[in-house]
Design brief:
The complex is a heterodimer of chains A (145) and B (116). Chain A has five helices and five strands. With 145 residues, chain A is of the alpha+beta class. A five-stranded antiparallel sheet of chain A has the order 1-2-3-5-4, covered by helices on one side. In chain B, helix 3 runs parallel beside helix 4. The longest helix of chain B has 10 residues. The radius of gyration of chain B is 12 Å and the shape is globular. Chain B starts with a helix and ends in a 9-residue tail after the last helix. Classes of the chains: A alpha+beta (145), B alpha/beta (116).
Chain lengths: 145, 116
């Protein structure tokens, strides 16, 4: 795949907790950026699904967060840091269907317990670090073929 | 199946149109949980849902979903309609419930996103 990229591209989006009206905007902007440089459609879909899930987690659970991206000719790396409540049991949170989401979040269509598994499914490398009471950091790498 | 055919089968109103009424929809998924849509979708599909908020449009855009049908005559607000227009995702509203809408389309030959 020949990408229209010279050097590396990086950027950052600030995410505001509870701001559902613009939720997903960072992921869609990233999607357009990847399309501009000619990334394969299936890779774009994987990257933006993983990013969107992470973005929604910040909107739902945290006061605020930041989404950083680094695009190289070989891969895209996405790091999402939030000032949220943290995850008490990461192993449990990684299980499909496990959720601590309150009812109002489920009524909006989120909190099915698929977020973290979906991020992992769509990433080539996935790590999550969390400190209860401080926040969570998710790092994902999606390699270009 | 085209958007026009889907609208006829579901007795649906077209809320937000598409420039291309002949866009081909190859399968469908029915869900109110957006993570389930992101997990199980396939591209060029139809989403049947009861949710009408703007993030449903963003979910569809990211998942590559081409059309959304709202069940039970639900109508999204102006913000959602405008976002769908920007993203070129046509919106339909059907009086059918999710079960009936899914059943009608399946009977008419539109398969689900998953084979099982």
């Amino acid at each position: 795949m020949a990408l229209n990229i010279t050097g590396n591209i990086d950027g950052i989006f600030q995410l505001i907790g509870g701001n559902f009206s613009t939720a997903g905007e960072a992921s869609t902007q990233l999607k357009h950026k990847l399309a501009e440089i000619g990334v394969d459609e299936e890779i774009i879909r994987r990257a933006t699904i993983a990013t969107f899930e992470a973005e929604m987690n910040v909107i739902i659970y945290a006061a605020a967060g930041w989404l950083h991206y680094y695009i190289t000719p070989e891969s895209i790396k996405i790091r999402i840091e939030d000032m949220g409540p943290g995850i008490e049991n990461i192993e449990l949170a990684m299980q499909e269907g496990y959720s601590t989401a309150p009812e109002w979040v489920r009524e909006m269509g989120w909190g099915a317990g698929m977020g973290l598994p979906n991020m992992k499914k769509n990433s080539d490398t996935f790590t999550v670090d969390s400190v209860v009471g401080e926040g969570t950091t998710v790092e994902m790498v999606i390699n270009f073929p | 199946m085209t958007l026009k055919e889907i609208a006829e089968i579901l007795d649906a109103t077209i809320i937000s149109d598409s420039d291309d009424l002949n866009v081909q929809i190859v399968n469908a998924c029915s869900a109110d949980m957006m993570s389930a849509v992101l997990y199980y979708h396939t591209p060029n599909s139809l989403l049947i849902t009861g949710l009408t908020q703007p993030h449903v449009i963003r979910t569809a855009e990211i998942a590559g979903i081409k059309t959304i049908v709202f069940v039970l005559n639900k109508k999204p607000d102006a913000l959602t309609i405008e976002l769908a227009r920007q993203k070129k995702i046509p919106l339909l509203s059907t009086p059918c419930c999710m079960y009936t809408a899914s059943g009608r389309l399946f009977s008419a030959g539109l398969p689900g996103c998953l084979t099982k």
